[in-house]
Amino acid sequence: MAETKPTAAAKSTTSAQPKKGGGNAISYLAPIICVIAGYCIWRFILGNSDGFTKPDELGGFWPSHKGPKGAWYRMYEGGIIVPLLLGAFLMVVVFSIERFLTIKKATGTGNNDEFVRKIQFHLANKNVDAALAECDKQKGSVGNVMKAGLKKYKEMISDGALNTEQKVLAIQKEVEEATALELPMLQKNLVFLSTLTSLGTLVALLGTVLGMIKSFSSLGEEGGSGAAAELAVGISEALYNTALGIGTSSVALMMYNVFTTKIDSITYGIDESGFTLTQSFASQYK
Questions:
Q1: Which of 103, 93, 107, 135 is nearest to 23 (CA)?
Q2: Domain count, the chain
Q3: Which of 69, 145, 248, 257 is 20 to 30 Å apart from 138, CA to CA?
Q4: Is residue 19 part of a domain?
Q5: Cβ(87)–Cβ(170) under 8 Å?
Q6: Dist CA 197 CA 203 (whole Å)
Q7: Which of 144, 121, 145, 141 is nearest to 131 (CA)?
Q8: Residue by residue, what is the 3-state secondary structure of 110-144?
């Protein structure tokens, strides 16, 4: 019986390296720190006793200050839901900055379309080393995937054990494995922004309901003009929570859409680079 040639899958070992997961700490620490920071802003800045005509001298976890001296201090009357909403907004800011820096690094230098054209030019001239040098200059996710594919491309040129179809499949497999290592890094932590888009509105709704309950309870217990002050505080609590929640959700939604658009652009560049490698090899080394 004739011996069968080894398949591409049997010979192929990926040159792409897994991304380090050192950035996981921010996923665990940022929400806790942001909620604590939100409480500190609400308690010690918005709830500064100097900003009220009738401060609660006892202080404590939730001082009962009365008579805010300005709009800034009136936010304190939004109640205990305000720290959660401030924490959620801080989370949006933190994860937006983290994603911006990560995606900016993944985008690399220069224009991806121009980079792919340079690779195509070098491959058309059978200059794989020059193409690899371009990948080192690009320094982004598209360059990383292209570099992994080019290394396999170069290896397949001198491989006499496989036919052209098997070599193309080996290059394609290498590109797919490199892509699988790059994409999780791009999409990481976007779940926080998508969650905060809905969570901000829901927490704000909870604060609104609690404020309205407080308003109508005061109106029912005291009645008449005596309940006017408590009614105003309750409505204020409801409206401040609504405003903070809508603002947080709006910013989170906007940033989520911005980042997903940038990731789609990088993903398109990665797909184009893989297609370039396989088509080039199939036409150049039949």
A1: 103
A2: 1
A3: 257
A4: no
A5: no
A6: 11
A7: 121
A8: CCHHHHHHHHHHHHHCCCHHHHHHHHHHHCCHHHH
Please tell me the distance from the alpha carbon of residue 149 to that of residue 154, in angstroms, as a whole number.
Answer: 9
Domain contains 88:
yes
- Distance, in Å, from the CA atom of 63 to the CA atom of 260, rounded to the nearest integer, reads 42
Tokens matching residue 38: 């939100």
Give the span between the Cα atoms of 252 and 93, in whole angstroms: 8
Question: CA quadruple 73, 74, 80, 83: dihedral positive or negative?
Answer: negative
In a 3-state reduction of DSSP, which class is residue 204?
helix
Q: What is the pTM of this model?
A: 0.83
Measure the CA–CA gap between 126 and 134, rounded to whole angstroms: 14
- Left (φ > 0), alpha (ψ -120 to 50) or beta: where does 243 sit? alpha
Q: What is the dihedral of CA 166, 167, 171, 176, to 10 degrees?
A: 10
Domain encompassing residue 189: 26-284
3-class secondary-structure state, position 68: strand
Extract the tokens encoding 276: 């370039």
Q: Within a domain: residue 17? A: no
Provide the residue-wise pLDDT of the chain in tens; the chain has 286 residues.
444 444 443 344 555 555 554 457 888 899 999 999 999 999 999 999 999 998 988 888 889 888 888 878 888 888 889 999 999 999 999 999 999 999 999 999 888 889 999 999 999 999 999 999 999 999 899 999 999 999 999 999 888 888 889 999 999 999 999 999 998 888 888 999 999 999 999 999 998 888 888 777 767 665 555 566 667 767 777 888 899 999 999 999 999 999 999 999 999 999 998 899 999 888 888 7
Is 260 inside any structural domain? yes
